[in-house]
Design a protein that fits this description.
This protein has two domains: 76 residues, Ubiquitin-like (UB roll) (Roll), CATH 3.10.20; 73 residues, DNA polymerase, domain 1 (Orthogonal Bundle), CATH 1.10.150.120. 35% of the residues lie in helices and 16% in strands. It contains five helices and five strands.
């Protein structure tokens, strides 16, 4: 039997009926049509479905939609501010970290949660933070450079 829940996603409130067994990933993609969150392994191993829940990265394939009620959810669609891309989105484009794009939303949201806690990371810290996100296109060099460039941009914005 479906249950009515209220989800706050990208600062917008949605009242929807969900089956109790449906994951947050399924609801985001299939019911709310926010397809930037990608379905990869469906086992929490690849990071493609990562979203922010209360500012922390979570693999949405392992979170029941019911568990997300009352939480602040951010998907890749909610990261930009109007027409302006978030510095992480910009740096992934500028540094070539975007590759094929499949892992990119999860990488960016994982990096966002990480940079919110560590504004001046080392390359090794970035590698560790992104270790739960798999990319099949690259050796991760451009992704790490993208995160470091965004960290620098975000620090400079705070100083101004």
């Amino acid at each position: 039997m479906k249950k009515m829940i209220t989800l706050k996603i990208n600062q917008e409130t949605f009242e929807i009926a969900v089956d109790p067994h449906r994951t947050l990933l399924e609801v985001i993609r299939e019911q709310l049509n926010l397809t930037g969150t990608h379905k990869g392994c469906d086992e929490g191993e690849c990071g493609a479905c990562t979203v922010l829940m209360d500012g922390k990265p979570v693999t949405s394939c392992l979170v029941l939609a019911l568990e997300a009620e009352g939480k602040e959810i951010t998907t890749i669609e909610g990261l930009a501010e109007g027409e302006s891309l978030h510095p992480l989105q910009e740096s992934f484009v500028n540094k070539g970290g975007i590759q094929c794009g499949f892992c990119t939303p999860g990488m960016i949201l994982t990096a966002k949660g990480f940079l919110d806690e560590n504004s001046d990371p080392t390359p090794e810290e970035v590698k560790k933070a992104l270790s739960g996100n798999l990319c099949r296109c690259t050796g991760y060099t451009q992704i790490i450079e993208s995160v470091l460039e965004a960290a620098k941009e975000l620090r400079e914005r705070r100083i101004k």
